[in-house]
Amino acid sequence: MRENREVRAAEAGALIVAVYTILVLSSGMVALADFATLLGFYLQASFSLWLIMGFVALVVTLYRNRPVNGVGPGPVAVVVRAIAARWERDRFVSMFWPPLLFATLMASFNAFKQMVLPAAGFRFDPLFAALDRMLFLGNDPWRAMHSAIGSPNAVLVIDRAYHGWFLPMAFGVLMCAWLPASTYRLRNQYLLSYVAIWIGIGSVLAFLLPSAGPCFYEHFVGPSAHFAGLARDLQAAQAATGAQLATLSNQEGLLRLFGGTGLQVGAGISAMPSVHNGLAVLFAIAAYRANKWLGYGFGAYAVLIWFGSVYLGWHYAIDGFVSAGSTFAIWRVTGRLMNRFEAPSAEPESEPVTA
């Protein structure tokens, strides 16, 4: 029998993303042709990764159902049975909505960040910089971190780890399409939280608390002794290792693209709150629910992402704190939603037939 709870969760996520997309497009700041091109890119990327993960899932399924001592179904029978079971489960809803969610959400967020968010300006940078110094007892957090860890090789490791965040960011969502029905609650709570982080933290709060971040402070706010040496330290580490830091090239690229008329993959500038940090915390929460030790590992990674976000100048320290707190709140809210989805749907009572 079709699992209504899978459909209900997917409908909720699709509705939220659809409303977000409509609001972004109705702003009048996003060209439909540009958005369609961006959406096409993300659909292609999303389903390419989805197919790769589907192949892995197929190999695992065939291995688990392999004949023992020559006794057992053949590979074709296993595949046919798996397809039939998936159709019976939810008409393939849980299989297709994660890649569609990822592509549509990424395209809409990119459009929002590049075309709508700049209207908010960057007026909160001085406040967040001052709050950071209060939290670090009068010191700029990035300076304290650079003093603690100044090895050029360590800078390179931090840079690679921070930008490697894209892998769990994309694969975590698409993996949900291939997980078994028994993972229903964890899968869908993760997906709904994922949507809420991009929209609630990365869009709504970013518009209400607009800031550019330490690496762009002098460009958008003005000269400041507090951030004058940030880029210089990173450039020195880059020169010492001879390896290009993704941080420096990406920051240069974002400045070059800022204010452009067309949509570009990954463009746009925003610091508060940090989606990087919010999603890293989400990885840790979801991983812990699956396996305690896996959760500890991703928890350490979340700390590294926060450290890297400040160390590399992308975010103020407070950006990560706000994101982490917001993510925990989002997880609780989506948990309550899952309770409602898991409750059996009321069947309409049949009316007696009268002559």
Secondary-structure blueprint of this entry?
Layout: H1 4-26, H2 32-64, H3 75-90, H4 93-116, H5 125-135, H6 141-148, H7 152-163, H8 166-175, H9 184-208, H10 217-220, H11 230-241, H12 246-257, H13 275-290, H14 292-311, H15 317-342
Helix pairs in contact: 1-4, 1-9, 2-4, 2-8, 4-9, 7-11, 7-14, 9-13, 9-15, 13-14, 13-15
The portion of residues assigned to helices is: over 70%
- Dominant shape: globular
Treating each run of at least 4 consecutive H or I residues as one helix, how many helices? 15
The amount of beta strand, in percent, is under 5%
Poorly predicted residue ranges: 346-355
Distance separating the two termini = 34 Å
Mean pLDDT value: 92
Structural class: mainly alpha
Report what the structure shows.
The protein is mainly alpha-helical and 355 residues long. The chain has one domain (4-342). Helix content is 71%, strand content 0%. The protein has 15 helices and no strands.
